[in-house]
Amino acid sequence: MKLWASVRVALQAIGANTMRSALTVLGIVIGVASVIAMVAVGRGATQRIQEQIRSIGSNVLIVLSGSSTAGGLRAGAGTLLTLTEEDAAAIQAESPAVELAVPTMRGTAQVIFGNQNWSTIIQGATPGYLEARDWRLASGEPFTPQDQAAATKVALLGQTVARNLFGDTDPVGQVIRIKKVPFTVLGVLAPKGQSPWGQDQDDLVVIPLSTAKRRVLGVSQANARAVGAILVRARESKLQQAAEEQVSALLRQRHRLQPGQENDFTLRNITEVFAAQEESARVMAVLLGAIASVSLLVGGIGIMNIMLVSVTERTREIGLRMAVGARGRDILLQFLIEAVTLALLGGIVGTAVGLTGSALLAHFGDWAVSVDASALLLAFLFSAGVGIFFGFYPAKRAAELDPIEALRYE
Fold first, then answer.
1. Is 191 a member of any domain?
2. Cα-Cα-Cα-Cα dihedral of 319, 325, 329, 332, to 10°?
3. Which of 112, 229, 277, 291 is packed most tightly, with the most Cβ within 10 A?
4. Are residues 193 and 94 in the same domain?
5. Which positions ≥6 away from 8 have C-beta within 8 Å?
């Protein structure tokens, strides 16, 4: 009962100085809102990176062909076709940590349907490509090993290509032309969205590798079995490093590279790159939260200052309460409750402002935000802690006042 009475007195004291109380609470409001918004932005960035990793495919390594050199100038990875379909088969058969190895070739071409046309990426691959990329079909069916063996003229369309060529019409079963060669559309791929490099992953057409070589992209004159890249999928995420080492050792052996000789291929572990980006985003979220927490510190100092002023203004009231039987701990409790109430009010309003600000950032700024319940609880509890920490000194000072001196205070 005494606690509720102290709460009632604290609320009355806060209500008696509405403007001062509102200005005191403002620091906590800004601090809590900043913490929630900044943490939401940081978590949103981390989640977006995780989504991009999943869009590439889980546990994926990419092996690129070597680079050509002319006049001392190196043209970059993939310009010299040093990988073959046999390399891919050997990787899958002889590397224990590898689940799939898919040879691929890539190029661009104009795709035509009726009076519509679209320039897009042509991805030639074996049937395991969709599995390696964790890519589902929105409609239709995938091409088969029989299509690969017979170089069948069939195609799978990305969402962007399907939309630009067919609009709202179902493309499955329709015939498109790629470099004047007719292809039957077997299916439409589910949307993947933007890649980590800003490329539209849905802007492509996937066809059998054999068809791509013979009909669309052509073959290397030096080796008809050459491919531009091999997509490797490890059996588990924890085996990616082992898969990378096994693939590198196997390719060096197959390509007869001597110790100390530079690789004629490039192996990229996409997950490692994204893991570094994810860690950077996580560190940035922590830094943003820490910077925003300074506002809470400032708000707490404001509460302490106002409570000290309140103790001075209410010295006679404190003396009167002590004279009629209030103990020091009763005075201490009352002023602590006032400080905590101010902090909690700021926490409630700050939480609402933070959530609203996060929603506005997501809507107008096109930023990825993710509000976590634990962040809300932490900000709320931290605001209460600020009230207790910064309210304790003024409350203790009030409790230690001498009743007689307090009654004489003017």
1. yes
2. -30
3. 229
4. yes
5. none
Using a 10 angstrom Cβ sphere, with 0-12 exposed, 13-18 middle and 19 or more buried, the burial of residue 106 is middle
Q: SS3 helix, strand, coil % of the chain, rounded to 5?
A: 55, 20, 20
The SS3 call for residue 42 is helix
CA–CA separation, 295 and 386 (whole Å) = 11
157-172: pLDDT as tens digits: 999 999 999 998 999 9
Q: Domain residues for 102?
A: 83-263
Q: In the prediction, which pLDDT does 27 show?
A: 75
Name the pTM for this structure.
0.63
- Let me know: does 296 contact 35? Beta carbons within 8 Å: yes
Quick one: pLDDT at residue 330? Answer: 72
User: Do 210 and 298 lie in a common domain?
Assistant: no
Tokens at residue 166, please?
A: 């067919």
Boundary-marking domain end, from 263, 286, 306: 263
Is residue 225 included in any domain, yes or no?
yes
Let me know whether 135 and 236 are in one domain: yes
Q: Where are the extended beta strands (E) located within 165-311? A: 175-178, 181-189, 204-208, 226-227, 229-234, 265-269
Q: Rounded CA gap, 313 and 336, in Å?
A: 16
- Final residue of a structural domain among 263, 292, 312: 263
Instruction: Centre a 10 Å sphere on the Cβ of residue 196 and count the other Cβ atoms it contains.
Output: 17
Rounded percentage of the chain residues whose pLDDT exceeds 90: 32
Contacts of range 334-337, beta carbons closer than 8 Å, 24 or more positions apart: 334/6, 334/9, 334/10, 334/395, 335/10, 335/307, 335/310, 335/311, 335/391, 335/394, 335/395, 335/398, 335/399, 336/387, 336/388, 336/391, 336/392, 336/395, 337/6, 337/7, 337/10
